[in-house]
Design goal:
The chain contains five helices and no strands. The chain is mainly α.
Amino acid sequence: MEHSNRSGLAHTRRPQPLGTKIGEANNSYKEAFSKLATGPGNLVRQVEMLRELGLKPKKKLKPKLLEEAGVEELELELEQSLALGAGADGGSEAV
């Protein structure tokens, strides 16, 4: 009897719902990763901006994550804005 129950279960389960769930999970992952590292105003860039302003985090972010978040671009923007600010007020350093 147990064998017939198991074989019946095998025939009633279809792979399509599993594929749909995998696709939904993948979409959820992509959305969460975008908020974390690649989307506008992402968390990684915000953390790096705070670090540039003097916040001292306990841990460093992985370089690949920083790269995907466009942190190198952010550092260039900060350097340029600091350079422009220094020229405008007689060369004093930003705090």
